[in-house]
């Protein structure tokens, strides 16, 4: 089942410390597994205009439109192997390149 829910990236802050916090909380092995799951979802259900989203609180997965991210934040995500690491609770995100 596929659900679509718009996401407002403009209300979130961009940070560079979310990945270390995520790895510290889960550990290296579980963090790598979560990132691999996100990449797998992108390969199975995504396309060139989406990027995988990994929610830090729950390890939930989603796909986000790279065009929406760009139009709302000015962050261009046209490279492959990018993941958007998001904390909904803290309203922050970090773009991660190829873990």
- Give the beta-strand count: 5
Mean pLDDT: 88
In helices, the fraction of residues equals: 25-40%
Oligomer kind: single chain
Number of domains as seen in the coordinates:
1
Secondary-structure element series: EHHEEHEE
Q: Would you identify the regions where 5 or more consecutive residues have pLDDT less than 50?
A: none
Strand order of the largest sheet: 1-5-4-2-3
Shape: globular
- What structural category characterises the helix and strand content? alpha/beta
The radius of gyration computed from the alpha-carbon positions, rounded to a whole number of angstroms, is 13 Å
Keywords for this structure?
single chain; 99 residues; alpha/beta; five-stranded mixed β-sheet; 5 strands; globular
What would you say this structure looks like, in words?
This protein has 99 residues and is an alpha/beta fold. It has one domain. Helix content is 35%, strand content 25%. It has 3 helices and 5 strands, in the order βααββαββ. The chain has helices at residues 18-26, 28-45, 66-73, and strands at residues 13-14, 50-55, 61-65, 82-87, 92-97. Strands 1-5-4-2-3 form a 5-stranded mixed sheet. β4 (82-87) and β5 (92-97) form a beta hairpin. α1 (18-26) crosses α2. 20% of the residues are buried.
